[in-house]
Structures are given as C-alpha cells and as structure tokens.
C-alpha cells in the first residue's frame, strides 16, 4: 500500500504533467518543466529520452516527418534558444548568422533531430527499393534476364545500323 508521501508525490507529478501537456507554447511547457526537480539519473538518460521523443514526433506529426525526410545529409539542425545544452545558446537571428563551430551552446536537440532525420531518410530509401516479387512487367526480374535483354538490344541496334 502506498504511503501518504508516495501518493502526494504521484499527485504532484500528475499535476505537473497536466500543466506541461496543456501549455499553449513549447516555451511555456519548458518553463513549467524547469521548476520540476530532475530525477537522480536524468543526466545519464536525457539524450536517449529526447531521441525517443523526437522519433515519436516524427512518427506522429506528418509535416515534421516530411520536412526532415527532405533535408540534405549536410543539413544543420539548430535549436535556437539561449539554452546552452539543448540549443545553440543564441537567439534565432544570431544562430543563423554565426558559424556553428562558434555557437556557445551544445545544440544537443539539433543533433538529435539530425540523427532522427538520417534514420528516416535511410528508412525511406529502403522502402523505395523494389523487393523480390514486386517487379513490374517491364522490369527484368533477374540480372541474367536483364543482361540478355541488353545483348538483344545491342545486336538489334547493330543490324539496324544504329
């Protein structure tokens, strides 16, 4: 049976979760979250947790997923906040006009978004490659058949004088 302090703690967590979920803006949610004491092992888990959150966002938010799928491999994702760990440590304008090597922040969130984007791009490429049994009638089904077709075309072209 839970003690009074455990019930109080669970209720407090539930109330903070509700405030954070109902926040109108991300910054408002961050401010609420900043007042909550981090769990003891948070520093060892926060990058993994954030990657899971960003991955879930990519799964659930079509516009976000489509945007990261279209990015080039050399794209730089930046969280332009004054947060020195998750962000660039600069405001959006300064982030845009400053070499990433000179950002005072670590930009961990931007790095995580890039990592998730690369996973989605790999997944997108692997889905687009035809699998065995998925060939269209005009596609060669084997390498041998393809090479035979090429040889036939080459012979036909020689006969026709092309």
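Sequence proposed for the structure above (162 residues):
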């Amino acid at each position: 049976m839970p003690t009074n302090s455990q019930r109080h703690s669970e209720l407090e967590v539930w109330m903070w979760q509700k405030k954070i979920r109902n926040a109108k803006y991300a910054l408002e949610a961050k401010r609420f979250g900043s007042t909550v004491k981090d769990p003891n092992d948070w520093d060892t888990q926060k990058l993994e947790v954030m990657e899971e959150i960003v991955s879930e966002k990519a799964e659930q938010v079509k516009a976000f997923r489509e945007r990261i799928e279209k990015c080039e491999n050399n794209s730089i994702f930046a969280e332009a906040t004054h947060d020195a760990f998750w962000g660039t440590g600069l405001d959006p304008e300064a982030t845009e006009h400053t070499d990433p090597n000179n950002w005072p922040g670590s930009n961990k969130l931007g790095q995580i978004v890039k990592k998730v984007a690369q996973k989605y791009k790999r997944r997108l490429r692997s889905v687009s490659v035809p699998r065995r049994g998925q060939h269209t009638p005009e596609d060669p089904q084997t390498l041998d058949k393809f090479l035979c077709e090429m040889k036939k075309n080459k012979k036909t072209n020689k006969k026709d004088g092309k």
